[in-house]
Protein: Protein-tyrosine-phosphatase
Amino acid sequence: MKKKVLFLCTGNSCRSQMAEGWARRLLGNTIEAFSAGIETHGLNPLAVKSMAEAGVDISGHRSKLVSELPENAFDLVITVCGHADENCPFFPGPVRVIHHGFDDPPKLAENAASEDEALKHYSRVRDEIREFIVTLPAIVP
Structure:
């Protein structure tokens, strides 16, 4: 039976979406990945582009609230930003909640002079998230 893992971020627009995409791609045979936000900010197009450059298609994802997810008991909830960690909702049952924060690509790229320059920030964070995702089998309860 696959373990259910939720990646939680503030707006479910970038980091949590990337994490879900990587988890589905790399660990889809053992993990059922979900992502959601405390708020919804829409799917970030540069996150989609950055993931596509790495061969992962998240273009069909959408920004969603945690309350929109199926009534599933998660085995693991991972907050990927400080705001989500500080405002993490209560999850019933024997769920493990951990925090593993990543830099915010839109914030890093806000003064970028071009899309290519902005994408460098997204790609760095994308790769850091991938490195974390491959460690999940040792973390998931």
User: Anything to note?
Assistant: Strands lie at 3-9, 31-37, 76-79, 96-99. The chain is about 40% helix and 15% strand. The mean pLDDT is 94. Residues 46 and 93 are 36 Å apart (CA to CA).
